[in-house]
């Protein structure tokens, strides 16, 4: 079975695995890169203006008024609009991402999936400020599931403003073989006990805009022929980070102090189908999930309230 259609990494509990990759208290230094294993501990840094116009372009992409102004706090998850990999066209791979070995390790499998991650919110990111980020490859692990070999790459990010840590992030990217045939969407059933939810019905223009805003060249989000014939999808794929952003948006509107957020991809969502983002309170935390129109679980997450007097 085509694993990303159901995120079917057989033999592994992806939720528990990503939980085990929780953000560490420190990151490693730089190393000389000769093989993919030598990427572990390597870091790269960048700076970005948290441009108000970029945030307003995201607002209108979500069909909202462009009312952001300098000094406003950047909404959670919108940092993905900044800190792009600036890579020459000649160094891109066939999928539209930077070729393996350019910004990510040259593992011997071509197909990239955003599996999940964790965000810890320390202090708001103010629009109009200069922010700095450091990304460090913490680990690269080779696994074997029923559908073949897999490589898990965990990348840690720290975002600071004027030397103050604002955001810590851990991302897990999974690589595997390209599919040999297309498969129908599959995946576990979504919960049915939401206390609050939103329904979204995106189109190809929205996906194109989000790809442009995040400088994400992955062709599965805007090239339907590529998505079908090369990666085996039935249609354009909705971005994993966009789903996580919409879950964060739902959580942030519950008038609770957001401290951290963990999320796990379960199965992809496709155009033109509508989908929902949902949540329910669980003590001081919030259980969140995205679901397809036919009830498949697409992404699940946990939002944790900020603890008084702490960063998490």
From the structure above, extract its key features.
312 residues; 10-stranded antiparallel sheet; globular; 6 helices; alpha+beta; 10 strands
Description:
The protein starts with a helix and ends in a 7-residue tail after the last strand. A hairpin with a 2-residue loop joins strand 3 and strand 4. With 312 residues, it is of the alpha+beta class. The chain is globular and about 50 Å long. Helix 3 packs antiparallel against helix 4. The chain has a 10-stranded antiparallel sheet with strand order 1-3-4-5-2-7-10-9-8-6.
Helices and strands in order, then pairings?
Elements: H1 3-6, H2 14-19, E1 43-49, H3 52-61, E2 111-121, E3 130-145, E4 148-161, E5 164-176, E6 196-200, H4 204-213, H5 224-229, H6 240-252, E7 258-265, E8 275-282, E9 285-292, E10 297-305
Antiparallel strand pairs: 1-3, 2-5, 2-7, 3-4, 4-5, 6-8, 7-10, 8-9, 9-10
Helix pairs in contact: 3-4
Identify the strand order in the major beta sheet.
1-3-4-5-2-7-10-9-8-6
Main beta sheet: 10 strands, antiparallel
Return the structural class.
Answer: alpha+beta
Order of helices and strands: HHEHEEEEEHHHEEEE
What is the mean predicted local confidence, pLDDT? 87
Query: Oligomeric state of the chains?
Result: single chain
Strand content: 25-35%
User: What sort of overall outline do the alpha carbons produce when their principal axes are compared?
Assistant: globular
Radius of gyration: 19 Å
Q: Low-confidence spans: pLDDT under 50, at least 5 residues? A: 1-21, 24-32
Counting DSSP H or I runs of 4 or more residues, the number of helices is 6
> Based on DSSP secondary structure assignment, what is the total number of beta strands?
10
Distance between the termini: 39 Å
Approximately how much helix is present in the residues? 10-25%
